[in-house]
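Supplementary Text 2. Reproducibility record for the structural model of the 237-residue chain.

All settings were left at their defaults, and a single model was retained for analysis rather than an ensemble. We include the record here because the model underlies the residue-level annotations in Supplementary Table 4.
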Amino acid sequence: MIPLLHLTIFISAIFCLFAARRLYSSFRRTRNINIGNFFKVFLTLTLYFSFVSLPGILADPTWIQISYIFSYIFLFFSPIWFLKAAFNMFRFPWGKYIIIIVLVMIIVTIFLNIFFSFPAQIQTFNHKFYHWSEGTPSWLGIFNGILIGILALGSSFLFFFGGLRSKEKLIRLRALLIGGGLDLLVVSALLAYTTAALLKGVMRWSAGMAASLLTLPGLILILVGIYYRGQEKEGSA
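Retained model, structure tokens:
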């Protein structure tokens, strides 16, 4: 049988690794803080997608759940760097206070996922595909999806609001591209965690597949927004 969902997630991991390498190269050359923040976004997402795809080659339910818990850590921390990039790009004065509040929420949520977790469970479909579902209670899965959705949506709002407030057309367009990519990731997170937690069997697997298929276009939009019109050459991001 084929771990199709884990394989599609691994494609996102490869893309994020490519983006992280490119951004790190740009950061070393320009020392631009915003490029550094975006590099950290894609680095944490690379680790998140890698840990989520690991169950495709593992067999022990306990170790698979441990892999999922590690994935949550990187997933929850990735929006921090989106927020920092937005606060720095558009000079929002209250950014550091929001970061502190978000950090507290993330730490509490990580401990909840550790405390309430149980071994992952395997599901098979049509004797062709299989998937390891997280050992997470439904209420916590819903909470995880809502939290990451709020963080990504908040980041998207900051980019939209900051971009529309800018007088420069290039900055507006780049902000809209990044915000649009984040919106796709919001939908993906809600499908992968909140919606999937309410479903069972093939419907839950289908929600996960839909989320995975939305993720890559969202990531591509964000990267296009970062590098639109040779801003790397200009040393801005």
